[in-house]
Amino acid sequence: MAVSLEPSNALSLPTWAIHVSSVLEWVIATKLMWQYAEVTGNARWREMSLMMMPSLASAMAACTWHFFYNSKELEFLVVLQAGMTVLGNCTLAWGAFRLWEGAQEEAKARDV
């Protein structure tokens, strides 16, 4: 009887737990920002939740590649993940700037 072992590049259960929980946390944070936008009426928080999507796509690409044991046929996911990470960093920076800008406008309006 042969025992089937995972390949040497398989992720450990604790590593998978971190990957999956990180993705779930990101989804929850996105939803909470969207809800905060609705409660406060501040659309910039909705924008920020949308700005989080490229980073989520990056995480999903990485998890998919790992799920298939870093298959050579799916190496394009590594490039996709890298591109989505760069795009996500840029969109998050823009979203953070927009939130800061909105806070400055609100502060200025209160001072008048």
3D architecture notes:
The chain has 112 residues and is an all-alpha fold. 79% of the residues lie in helices and 0% in strands. Helix 2 runs antiparallel to helix 4. It is elongated. It starts with 12 loop residues before the first helix and ends with a helix. The mean pLDDT is 94.
What would a concise description of this structure say?
This protein has helices spanning 13-40, 43-51, 53-67, 76-111. The protein has 112 residues and is mostly helical.
Distance from first to last alpha carbon: 81 Å
Largest sheet: none
Radius of gyration: 19 Å
Mean pLDDT over the residues: 94
Q: Low-confidence parts, pLDDT < 50 over ≥5 residues?
A: none
Strand percentage lies at under 5%
Number of helices: 4
Helix content: over 70%
How many strands?
0
The helix/strand series, from N terminus to C terminus, equals: HHHH
- Backbone structural class: mainly alpha
Shape type: elongated
What descriptive keywords fit this protein?
mainly alpha, single chain, 112 residues, 4 helices
